[in-house]
Amino acid sequence: INRRSTFLSDPVSDLIDVENREVSVAALHDPDLYELEMERIFAKAWLLLGHESEIPNVGDYVVRLMGEDQVIVARAADGQVHVSLNVCPHRAMHICIADSGNARVHKCIYHGWAFRPDGSFIGAPIEKEKMHGEIKSKEQLGLKKARVTVYGGLVFATWNHDGPTLEDFLGDMKFYYDMLFCRTDGGLEILGPPQRLTIDANWKTAGEQSACDGFHTLTLHQSLLEGGAMAGEENTEHESAPAMYGVNVSGNGHSLRCIPADTSWAMMAGKTHAGMTDDERLELMPPPGITKDLLPQVRKNLSAEQLHVFAKAPPVVGGMFPNVNLLFIYSPLRDGTLGSAMVMHSINPKGPEKFEWVTYFFAEKDTPEEVKAMMRAAATQGTGTSGVIEQDDSDTWPHMSESARGVIGRTETLKYQAILGETRPDDWPDKAKVYSGFSKDDAQWNWWLAYRDLMLAEA
Ligand code: FES
Ligand code: FE
């Protein structure tokens, strides 16, 4: 009872020790805290729901999650993407019970109330009997609508209609995300429907790891490093792990690890970038996810500062607050460069001890089909349900959640005390917080501070 009342009045002051950079393990388990997270984070933040290339035609829809709320992401007659709560306003039945499809009319299977893809109410069967009643107008009986922004083709939505725009939510980090999502004329395309895997763990175990936990690579993924399945980090001597050195960028809880082009990225192709100009570097090794013939478009669509980041240390792995993970998986191409699908995950909470790990693969739309096939194969091998990399990661998350179940275990703390501090190389753009050096705890700690801010904000 005490614990409950503590959380309800001040959900985080006992859990997050700002001075010592520690978080109570109890945060990975508590059901009351979980309910507050659903209200204060998942009903407020901008959430990734997929990509508009999944629903190219009018009537196309997919069903996705915002927290534990199912939503219908549909292309309506106006050509726009609409996100509507998948809850019938009559008696709360799910309107769509398939994961995806095409429908000009969504008809509830219970009593037959019908809705358009934009969520508006059409009517109930036997119109003359007025089975929707006369107290409320048809305009008042539509599905609840979320606020939508399509960014680089990615569909984001929030229930916070009066809150910050997606652009404000991303802040300075948009500079880096533009480099990944908005760099070619054709934009990104999704490579097939997402995989979904349920993991018995609290969503924050994967959420905070996505905020640039590079350090675990050396140990948890050691067998992959030894087997050569993870590029550029094959030297598993902890003292000389070149890909651990780079530039972590972080803002508003979002973060990306930028790994120097002349360590991991080029090592895999056996190349060195020393002494080259930005143009020469990009020519030798285009940024992750970009084939050589797309380079002119990248040059056209991005600024000189962004191209410099690509040439020096391209963003390779990271996330978006609160529940997106992002990484590139490489596959060698015939021209000596590397192809790489961009993999994005959303981490969808399904209770305090369960989340869904959703895996999306992306390629630039104008990538040749045979290269896309290689990218998809490499991504499938590395990530998601069958992925050799993420089998390692997803093995740790349930253990951490289980630790939090013990009454003694939950008195332990998670520690973020390996501090690098803000260190911006002279030639690095003045965007977001920049941590240059060995990948330490800075960005992950910023993730928790963003979490704390939202949890303490007015409900
Ligand atoms: Fe949907 Fe009755 S619950 S029509
Ligand atoms: Fe990992």
TrEMBL record:
Does this UniProt record's set of keywords contain Iron?
yes
As for family, the record states: Belongs to the bacterial ring-hydroxylating dioxygenase alpha subunit family.
PROSITE patterns in alphabetical order: RIESKE, RING_HYDROXYL_ALPHA
Name the species this protein comes from: Sphingobium fontiphilum
Pfam family name, one: Rieske
Source domain of life: Bacteria
Q: What is this protein called?
A: Phenylpropionate dioxygenase-like ring-hydroxylating dioxygenase large terminal subunit
According to the entry, every stretch annotated as the Rieske domain falls at 46-157
Q: Which Gene3D superfamilies does UniProt cross-reference here?
A: Naphthalene 1,2-dioxygenase Alpha Subunit, Chain A, domain 1, Rieske [2Fe-2S] iron-sulphur domain
